[in-house]
TrEMBL record:
One of its GO terms (molecular function) is phosphatidylglycerol-prolipoprotein diacylglyceryl transferase activity. InterPro entries: Lgt. One of its GO terms (biological process) is lipoprotein biosynthetic process. Belongs to the Lgt family. Pathway: Protein modification; lipoprotein biosynthesis (diacylglyceryl transfer). The keyword Transmembrane applies. Keywords: Cell membrane, Glycosyltransferase, Lipoprotein, Membrane, Transferase, Transmembrane, Transmembrane helix. The lineage of its organism: Bacteria, Bacillati, Actinomycetota, Actinomycetes, Propionibacteriales. It is an enzyme of class 2 (transferase). The keyword Zinc-finger does not apply. This is Phosphatidylglycerol--prolipoprotein diacylglyceryl transferase.
Length: 381
């Protein structure tokens, strides 16, 4: 008895989404924007866990993110429009299209640069170390890029050269660039970069856990790791961009940032080892002293005064005569506390003998001495 196994159809390519926009009534839901928002929340989630582990408060980081994200989005669009200005300005172009961010076109370099500027402003407001915030958020930024790259997948953009491999990405004819109309499948560079960035996330977390990266080194490691992969992926892409000395502009940017980040890692690992603290405490008002120090100083300064007070004889006469041997009078001790404090160390080294109170003078009238005929004249004198 023979049996037939059902045939399993394995596609020879990765299909592209049939649509990237859904309408909820008059409101369009764009996959590109959704991917970016999910990436932001994923990056914040990871950064928040690392920030709390370092001793920071989540409220502070949330406010920093509220500054960094708008700055990053604006910067990403500005960088794209500047470096690809021929897409929006010139004959037959519509400059208003530069504002249509939902059509794609966000430069990661501008996003990171302007995002750091917004974070720096917020860090100054909260008086927390900016480089520590950059370190804890470094793998979160890479994670946000992982999710955000799928927005390019839904838009069918930023793909690579044609390929016949089974992981090739099928692109609809309306999205194929000029000169590639006869090719159906292309390198899925969005997927390459997403997988690479997952590796960068793991790299930063593991190295930071092992070596306790601080003073911006975790962020520098993220930059070095990301730019190394971006330079390779960028060379596979076929979208129209500006070139400089035979290389795509983004390749030059990646190479320069890679060199700078590696140099920063090497230099700061020697000049600023370890991690900075992110725990902030309210500053002590100027002029205030700890209670323990004040009490200790009081005891040191007032030691002799208390001794002097204790040395006052109880048999002092009613007329206020308080003379005694080896004791400091109370009225002098009240006006010479600084002198007592200056001599306290020598007094401690060589203690004085305990003061012996002098017997009070007996000023009561004595009865007259009667002449004793048996007493010699010399004794009577």
């Amino acid at each position: 008895m023979s049996s037939q196994l059902p045939a399993v159809v394995v596609p020879a390519f990765i299909p592209s989404p049939s649509q990237g926009v859904w309408h909820l009534g008059p409101l369009p839901l764009r996959a590109y924007a959704i991917c970016i928002l999910i990436g932001i929340f994923a990056g914040y989630w990871l950064g928040r866990k690392r920030w709390v582990a370092r001793g920071g408060t989540p409220e502070v980081l949330a406010d920093i993110i509220m500054w960094a994200v708008p700055f990053g989005l604006v910067g990403a669009r500005i960088y794209h429009v500047i470096t690809d200005n021929e897409l929006y300005f010139g004959e037959g172009k519509h400059p208003i299209d530069a504002l249509k961010i939902w059509h794609g076109g966000l430069g990661i370099w501008g996003a990171v640069g302007f995002g750091l500027l917004g974070a720096w402003i917020a860090c100054r407001r909260h008086k927390v170390p900016f480089l520590a915030v950059a370190d804890v958020m470094a793998p979160g930024v890479a994670l946000a890029q992982v999710v955000g790259r799928f927005g390019n997948y839904f838009n069918q953009e930023l793909f690579g050269k044609p390929t016949t491999h089974f992981w090739g990405l099928k692109i609809d004819s309306g999205h194929r660039p000029e000169g590639y109309a006869d090719f159906a499948t292309f390198h899925p560079t969005f997927l390459y970069e997403a997988i690479w960035n997952l590796g960068v996330v793991a790299l930063v977390i593991l190295v930071d856990k092992r070596f306790k990266l601080g003073h911006g080194r975790a962020f520098a490691l993220y930059v070095a790791g990301y730019t190394a992969g971006r330079a390779w992926v960028e060379n596979l892409r076929i979208d129209t961009v500006n070139h400089f000395l035979g290389l795509r502009l983004n390749v030059w940017t990646a190479l320069i940032l890679f060199v700078l980040s590696v140099a920063y890692l090497v230099i700061t690992s020697r000049t600023k080892p370890g991690q900075e603290s992110v725990v902030t405490a309210p500053a002590t008002p100027e002029g205030d002293e700890p209670v323990e120090a004040a009490e200790g100083e009081k005891a040191a300064d007032g030691g002799e005064d208390e001794a002097a007070d204790n040395d006052v004889p109880a048999a002092a006469s009613d007329d206020g005569d308080k003379a005694k041997v080896g004791a400091v009078p109370a009225d002098e001790s009240a006006t010479s506390s600084s002198a007592a404090s200056a001599t306290s160390s020598s007094a401690a080294a060589e203690p004085e003998p305990p003061a012996v109170p002098a017997e009070p003078a007996d000023e009561s009238p004595r009865p007259p001495v009667k002449d004793n005929p048996s007493t010699p004249d010399a004794d009577r004198d």
